[in-house]
Amino acid sequence: MSTQVSFDVKIKSIPRDPRNTLIMACPEPSLASIVTIEYLVETLKMEEIGSIKPRNLVPVITVINGAAKIPYLLFYSKEHALVVIRQHMPIAPIAYRQFVNRVLDWAEDNGINRVVCLTSTSVLGDKELDTVYFVTEESHVDEYKNLGFVPLREATITGMEAVFLDAVLSRNINGVLLLAESKVLTTINKLLVSGKIASHRDLLTILNQTVGQYGPDVIAALKLVKAISKLINAEIPVDQLAEHANKYAFLIEKNLEEYMKPPKEEIPVYY
To answer: Which residues fall within 8 angstroms of residue 264, CB to CB, at 6 or more apart?
Structure first.
């Protein structure tokens, strides 16, 4: 029996524009998607337009330099016809489908033509590439190929990414999942597969010992920022990205904890 989680939704309407695009994230321990969205908010000087708050889940507030940052806020740039959703931590699996559907309801009501979910994946070949992969409805495949993205050839997708795709592809919305390869996520998944990790704290300790002070995957975030530049046809400067990413290193432990929670089927992407 599914658990119903209600949401308080307070979001302003935005001007109808054929360019309107909404960007959300599937947070995971590389933090690539989280860093990308926060960087867009800061660099494009986006305006806060509302929030989606779960009513009966334990609230989590992140703090940076004394400033409280409420998760699940929406920001808008009229110049770029762009809306993004802050998601510092994953929505609980029991609520994520409802969360996505509330987002898509608002998107349809406001004439948003494209909804994008950002995530990262383990390295798919012998070495990490600058490629950004995509999964979308068959009728939109050529569109994303023409933007320079590469179709994901063969995969079984589970977890939040699968919920997003299942929800968006059933509507009259151009929905796409964008994936950047991450060496950090590759390392994490290899350690998990080894079966020698008892907790997220053990994993964090090993990462710090083997790859130095573990922080957000800036390289994967850079790929995603460049991908957004292509989508909105605007140059987004990336010179401050590494400095920006360091502000969010403290979120790694919480995302790692969520990533490792059973059931194992909730681990985002398998290949």
So the answer is: none
